[in-house]
Amino acid sequence: MDNGIFVRFREGINLFNNHSFYKCHDVLEDVWFDVRGSSRRFYQGLIHVAVGFYHITVRKNPKGAVSQLSKGIEKLSDYKPGYQGVELDSLLKEIEICRDLIKNGISGEFNIKLIPKISFEKDLFNDTSR
Length: 130
Known about the structure:
By secondary structure, this protein is mainly alpha-helical. It has one domain: Hyaluronidase domain-like (Orthogonal Bundle), CATH 1.10.3450. The chain has helices at about 5-15, 20-35, 40-60, 60-75, 90-105, and strands at about 80-85, 85. It has a two-stranded antiparallel ribbon. A hairpin with a 2-residue loop joins strand 1 (about 80-85) and strand 2 (about 85). Helix 4 packs antiparallel against helix 5 (about 90-105). It is globular and about 45 Å long. The relative contact order is 0.17.
């Protein structure tokens, strides 16, 4: 296993779970760049989700948030029920709830407490850099 990818992936998840979506995007994009094969779409899906939550929490851009979250949901759905140690079934349901709330118009600030945490089981992670 390439510890560089594992360490960066875990860092990206931690950044996401701490609502540092822009930094998460940067870290996961770096991982995505190094990964080859079919798993690239998985990382790209996570990047879209991070960017979507960045759009709603920082940029206050609901249209951008809905677009990015939808792209992330579409890409990540290919990997259900879980992939690379990330449980996707409940994560995707929670992202869909957030996307639909944003899509249907929210009054005031988006409640950051609604943003799901990424559940990660490190023992299920596989090196995908090759």
